Amino acid sequence: xxxxxxxxxxxxxxxxxxxxxxxxxxxxxxxxxxxxxxxxxxxxxxxxxxxxxxxxxxxxxxxxxxxxxxxxxxxxxxxxxxxxxxxxxxxxxxxxxxxxxxxxxxxxxxxxxxxxxxxxxxxxxxxxxxxxxxxxxxxxxxxxxxxxxxxxxxxxxxxxxxxxxxxxxxxxxxxxxxxxxxxxxxxxxxxxxxxxxxxxxxxxxxxxxxxxxxxxxxxxxxxxxxxxxxxxxxxxxxxxxxxxxxxxxxxxxxxxxxxxxxxxxxxxxxxxxxxxx
Length: 277
Known about the structure:
4 strands; 64% helix; globular
């Protein structure tokens, strides 16, 4: 379609404008879902080669921090068949960070998932330091909220250390298993690697956190029971969210236009990123 201003130009220019406009409309009207995904090695993608990676990383770190700040301190109870089911409220949202971790590794590769894990680790360290510093500051004489602040943000150092160590180990194991399983399955059966990586990653997370945080504070049997129960709940959340994971992964892959495989990636947590220029 031509617009009135374009009808006043000479014929040759008119033809050129019409051709440009047609190319523009074709580019706009063809959605990324029409593209064939190109299989690429993770290290061959330039450092700024993706459109939505920064947004996914921001969502990952945001949910990680909020689930630790808002949800971790509250113990909730649901009445199930007349029996109260008691659980930490944070468990409802913390597994979403693992789902986003799956999305990061599946769509963007282990290199970028590793970067996000380190960013999340650093953010947790800063959050713990800031909470300690703010709570430790002496309150003004007329301010009466110190007790509430301590109740919400006061953290036992042992639990803080256990939480950060468990996240670090569990997240890297989760990404490692997913990246390896993607090679084994040749990119097929996404659900097997999202659930399989969560089974292993959350097992490592729980096996580190609960003994470090509560052993010799709770009876050993209670530690084991809570550890297994919470691991099962996190895995169940991953299963429930599988349709959401499929939708998000599919949309991002279509938008990015590639299928990333970590064929030659160094999967050590401490390896540097490989990037083409």
